[in-house]
């Protein structure tokens, strides 16, 4: 059986309301599994909207969003939520962590909601705690002094690495990173990306990296300019 | 379970605000329970003050006034009744027994009651319980006294003690019958009624100590020694009130009418049960007002919780979005925020119970000695469980308000980091 694409968009259209103009129209996009793809575009080009559609938080007004062979816009809300928690890991721009949980609790958080990721993480590391520690070690975050500190006292770079470990735990097939480096300085940015790539390679995850920073694009196997991909009228965005 | 542990950690993260809310809920819960317990116990103690007595008879005044001074030893009689009238009804064909009561003197703040041996034979309280002696025996001679349990305990009296009776009901009386001391011959078992706070002496004793008194004053030059007084006729001329037991309950209203219509003296006969009920109804208004106020206090506590939860919600939209991104469904968010409120109020209830029992343990002896009210430190009664259940349910309903808002936010925000 041929492997389905990680992501397949067909004639995707989205508008916030019926009588408002469309903000997003992507005739076709296919992302094979294991690919690292850079999605660039100025702010307002529809990046967040696209991510919300891929995550199944918003539904397209027309067209199909197929993730790992599952057409998620046909699933019920609860099923979409389940699908997302099982198969997609997220890293956001800033303040990614739950302030009242410890570093380890933050990393293992997806396993509270996804049975599948809990199972995969346990298989990989023996138990959740060791798996979280393994990921944190890879991300150079496993020092005793760091993991027992309240997450609000970590530096931005450290927080982003904890968030990355959380996105990676339980080896979800797709990692979506939404401007995760914009708060980091350029040295940190490079180092962070290297770690991210390394981890995605190890788990075989597909990486969708969204950023307005075109300098980073060259580091990826493939880059897409959303401004060009998006066929919706400029006024509508 | 996973969500509730998140709720707990989230609350702990805001422990100062949450702690204040917790304290306000705990205080209001303990206040409500304490009021409820006081209410139930005062009603119980009230209804069980006297039993087995068909009529209480005194000088004509209000029925509640009569009940208060004759049974509860609160306030004073407006007037006395004559021995002759008492004799007439005591010898009535339908009357089985009577207990004469003569009040007006005191010992160290405790009321002294003159009566006769029938008191020990016929007086009943609680569920038709007779008085029993813990030590000694009933009085047989003029200068002998039987103490209520509290009198003996508080003043540290044993059988054989000599006590002096003071004129009037005040705690510090300047006129004392110190020429005629009484010997304690018996101490009663505790009853939980005003009997505990009473010094019982024979009617003749009351008469003897007042032999050389006229119009409330000792008459100069007319001193009669204790021994001389015994020589005199000690049959009282007046008493304060008397209790009546009838041969048949059916005759109650007939005798009551007969007494109330008595031509020679204005008398009043009341049914103690009815008067107790009237008294209770009078207090019921205040009692219900108190209950309403305490219910409102609990409500205010819960509204405080709602305010804090709603105010914090906007700052937490990012937290909700993160939770959504790691797989929390909108229902989880609802459960998280509602769970926080529920957890807070359940902890508040638990802490409130703790406060209540601590308060009861510390305050019980003082309340019992000062107000004669025994507050049991048992597990909560059914009604109290219902109250706790209602508080829990209300807090759940109130907690659903921020829960629902967070749910709406998480639906509309999705995973976008708006703030």
TrEMBL record, chain B:
This is ABC transporter permease. Its main location: membrane. InterPro entries: ABC-4/HrtB_transporter, ABC3_permease_C, MacB_PCD. It comes from Candidatus Thiodiazotropha lotti. PANTHER family: ABC TRANSPORTER PERMEASE, ABC TRANSPORTER, MEMBRANE PROTEIN. Pfam families: FtsX, MacB_PCD. Keywords: Cell membrane, Membrane, Transmembrane, Transmembrane helix. It comes from the Bacteria.
